[in-house]
Every structure is written in structure tokens, then in C-alpha cells.
Amino acid sequence: MSLTTGAPSVDLGQAFPELTAYARTTVRLHPRRGEPGMRDSHIGGPLLWPAGEAWPECADQESHGDPYPMVPIAQLTAADVPEAGFPAGTDLLQILWCPEWHDQPHPEGRGQACRVFWRRAADVTDVLTDQPDPEEHWDHEWDMIPRACVLQPERVAEYSWKEELPEDLRGRIAAWLTERGLADDGSAIPGYKVGGSMNWSVSDMPRSLTCAACEAPLALLLQLDTYEWALGAWGPAGEPHRFWPLEERHLERGDVEFDLAREPAGMTVGRAGHGGLFVCSADPTHPPCCFTQ
Ligand SMILES: [Zn+2]
Ligand SMILES: [Zn+2]
């Protein structure tokens, strides 16, 4: 089954043509609980990990003393999500993190210590079958361990988060929306997604989002979200939230199926918010950063 995002309640690009310079495509991953294979794209779940390569550990003594095996967050293939920006010669992306909070390479980047691996799947001939069980090591941080999910990528257009816009344009859009009693559901969209723009409504956007190694701008690689869509009516007509997939609108609030669709990975990111894993836009093998909202 493929999942489809609803139409935005307002097309801001029509009212503000200069906004189209800030339009981009993001890939909603639509994770849903499942049993992904080692070679598939997925959130959580087993990685196509070389048997001869040590499993990454987090050795931050201050946070948890002994080194602990890191937890698989996502695996993406170039066939499913080419937009992830695979370096030449690679077609497999693996992301792991430590469920504890840590200092990170970015000065404003306290969050999950994370590792990003770019590989060529064909190079992994001997696969590590006995992978660390997150539950065994991390039962006290279960909130930050995603349950295994399969993906159904969907391309969706969005505009940048408002703090990325020129101040004048941002002010005019806000006034225009207020005047009409409308809310913007076309910018920095929620849920698990690859690429695009992150919503920084909890803390302001860091003043500089640059790579600790080379100072090139950081780019959102993967957004992780507690919820795929917001509850309640939306806009003056009281429509359901546009990010509730059209194919799942028969689900009843309060039912297990509804919760599994809305909170597929079972993670509480930050204070029931969302987070973004950012990589260097010049060289994605530079140290990544996680920011939580
Ligand atoms: Zn750690
Ligand atoms: Zn860099």
C-alpha cells in the first residue's frame, strides 16, 4: 500500500511568488511496524553490517560509564531514497545513535551521539547475523530506540522553515495568514522524512548551522518525529490534519491501529517533539549532528 499526504490547506507560493525560491521536495518515509529484511530500507531493524567490522559503540564515560553498542536508527538504500545524497560509489546508508544525551561536534548540538555510514551494499558479502539487541543494553532508555518499521517513501513539496526566509517576507506571510485565519501546513512538514527543512518552533534555529570539520552548511538528512501528524481539526473548515495519510483516515482515534500509524516507531523524541540528523552539505562523511525539538 502506498500512503498519500493530503493537499495543503493554503498554497502560499501562489500568494507569495518569491517564496517559490524556498520550495523543495522532501521524502516522507511513512514508517509502519513490520519485519524489514537486512537489505531493505527501514527505521530500526537489522542492518546489512559486515561480519568483519566492529559494531559501533558509544564510549561516553560521563553519561553511562561502560561502552555500549549503538542502536540502529535507519537504513536507506539509494534505490528507495536516492535523495539522501549518497557519496559516489555508495548505495547504502546506515544511521546509529546512542539513546543517551551527549555533547556533539556542533556548539549548540547537545543531543544524540550519532554515527552515519555510507557503504556499497555489494561490498558486504559476509553479514553480521548476531547483532546487539538494544533491549538488552538500553532498557532504561527505551523511548529513544525505534521499533522496526518498513517504509513507503512519498515525495512531498514543502517550503523552508520560516526562520530561513528573509525577515520581510516572513513578516508579510505571517500577517497574511493571520488576516485570513489560516495556518501554514506547507512548510517544514512533520514526520519521518529525508531532506527538506526542519521546524524549529521549540528552540530558535541555531545561529549558524555549519559543519564542525569544514564550516560548510549542515543539511537535514533525516528527521525523526514522535508523531506523524497532529490531532484535531485543522484550518477554518475543520479538516483533518493534512499529514494523516488519506488511506488511513478510516482509522478510529483511540484504536491501536490509529496509534501505530501515528506513532509508528514508538519513540518519544525530545519532549514528544521531533529531531533532525544533519550532515555536512560539502562532505556527508564529516561528523553528523542531531538536534532535538
Ligand atoms: Zn552514549
Ligand atoms: Zn564538512
TL;DR of this structure?
The chain is an alpha+beta fold. Helix content is 12%, strand content 25%. The chain has a six-stranded antiparallel β-sheet, with no helix packed on it.
Structural notes for this entry:
A six-stranded antiparallel β-sheet has the order 10-1-11-12-15-16, with no helix packed on it. A six-stranded antiparallel β-sheet has the order 2-9-3-6-7-8, with no helix packed on it. With 293 residues, the chain is an alpha+beta fold. It has five helices and 16 strands. The protein folds into two domains: 12-32 and 152-292, no CATH class; 36-142, no CATH class. The chain has helices spanning 12-15, 61-64, 134-138, 167-180, 256-262; strands spanning 23-28, 32-33, 42-43, 57-58, 68-69, 71-77, 92-102, 111-119, 149-150, 154-159, 193-194, 218-225, 233-234, 239-240, 274-280, 289-292. One zinc ion binds at residues 211, 213-214, 216, 280, 282-283, 286. This is DUF1963 domain-containing protein.
Characteristics:
six-stranded antiparallel beta sheet; YwqG-like_sf; DUF1963; globular; 293 residues; DUF1963 domain-containing protein; 12% helix; single chain; 16 strands; 25% strand; binds zinc ion
